[in-house]
Automatic annotation (TrEMBL):
<dbReference type="InterPro" id="IPR023561">
    <property type="entry name" value="Carbonic_anhydrase_a-class"/>
</dbReference>
<keyword id="KW-0732">Signal</keyword>
<feature type="signal peptide">
    <location>
        <begin position="1"/>
        <end position="22"/>
    </location>
</feature>
<dbReference type="InterPro" id="IPR036398">
    <property type="entry name" value="CA_dom_sf"/>
</dbReference>
<dbReference type="InterPro" id="IPR001148">
    <property type="entry name" value="CA_dom"/>
</dbReference>
<keyword id="KW-0862">Zinc</keyword>
<feature type="domain" description="Alpha-carbonic anhydrase">
    <location>
        <begin position="34"/>
        <end position="260"/>
    </location>
</feature>
<comment type="similarity">
    <text>Belongs to the alpha-carbonic anhydrase family.</text>
</comment>
<dbReference type="GO" id="GO:0004089">
    <property type="term" value="F:carbonate dehydratase activity"/>
</dbReference>
<dbReference type="InterPro" id="IPR041891">
    <property type="entry name" value="Alpha_CA_prokaryot-like"/>
</dbReference>
<keyword id="KW-0456">Lyase</keyword>
<dbReference type="Pfam" id="PF00194">
    <property type="entry name" value="Carb_anhydrase"/>
</dbReference>
<keyword id="KW-0479">Metal-binding</keyword>
<protein>
    <recommendedName>
        <fullName>carbonic anhydrase</fullName>
        <ecNumber>4.2.1.1</ecNumber>
    </recommendedName>
</protein>
<dbReference type="GO" id="GO:0008270">
    <property type="term" value="F:zinc ion binding"/>
</dbReference>
Length: 260
């Protein structure tokens, strides 16, 4: 009888240990599988928790709400020189699960504060991430530039709905694109049609608006939005996650300059 009880207890113990191990393995696998997104348990408010080696809980984060009455106004003095040419080549377009991203071959560049930054890629957020006086625009385009030393300057271009944009018609000619898909392009694009050199802009020091949220970004956000059609806004939106924007971040004493 005692032998039977011992045998039964042994079986129960083995079963219990196996269940604990299986549960632990499930938890570990679930933890490993977690990846940042824009909704649920992996939405922006949880990025600092799930992206352990990131700056997402830093004090110089982006995007921000730019309150015009609180900015420091400065005259435009050739601090920003945009050197876009009609011969720059788009390399490829990718749906990376977070946005539609267009990658560029070497060509276009900007000069900011005496340093040269090379255009690497363009991607989109809907609705816009940066706000001006609390106003949320339907779309924001980020033109990401990187120097040879790895420093980053991003041009944030807000968009409002109106007339059709030939530039966005060109971008969207490569859509739809399934999540994870990449399409080769190797076609010329002329970004000078954005006329960014004629626009007033805000500047401040911030971060990437996606993990790892690195705080080494010069932000230039143009005050005047570009115009594109409702259909163009919707076509991009239908190819990206819903509401792929990060919530507003605290300014934490940073100074925003307005260049006019």
């Amino acid at each position: 009888m005692k032998t039977a009880i011992k045998l039964l207890l042994g079986i129960v113990l083995i079963f219990s240990v196996a269940c604990i191990k299986a549960k632990h393995q499930t938890i570990v696998e679930h933890s490993i599988d977690k990846h940042w997104s824009y909704e649920g348990e992996t939405s922006p408010i949880h990025w600092a928790e799930i992206e352990k080696n990131s700056d997402c809980d830093g004090h110089h984060q982006s995007p921000i709400n730019i309150i015009h009455k609180d900015v420091d106004s400065v005259r435009i003095n050739n601090d920003l020189k945009i050197q876009y040419t009609p011969s720059t080549l788009l390399s490829e377009v990718e749906n990376n699960g977070h946005s539609i991203q267009f990658d560029f071959e070497p060509g276009d560049s900007i000069n900011y504060m005496g340093k040269t930054f090379y255009l690497k890629q363009i991607h989109f957020h809907e609705p816009a991430e940066h706000r001006i006086n609390g106003m949320i625009y339907p779309i924001e385009m980020h033109l990401v530039h990187v120097s040879k030393k790895g420093e980053i300057t991003v041009l944030g271009v807000l968009g409002e709905e109106g007339e059709e944009s030939q530039l966005f018609e060109f971008f969207e000619s490569f859509l739809p694109l399934e999540n994870g898909a990449v399409k080769d392009i190797h076609q010329k694009i002329d970004l000078s049609s954005l006329f960014l050199e004629d626009k007033h802009y805000y500047s401040y020091g911030g971060s990437l608006t996606t993990p790892p949220c690195s705080e080494n970004v010069n932000w230039i956000v143009f005050k005047e939005p570009i115009v594109l059609s409702v259909e163009e806004v919707l076509k991009l939106k239908n190819n990206m996650p819903v509401n792929n924007y990060r919530n507003e971040q605290a300014l934490n004493g940073r100074v925003v300059n307005y260049h006019y």
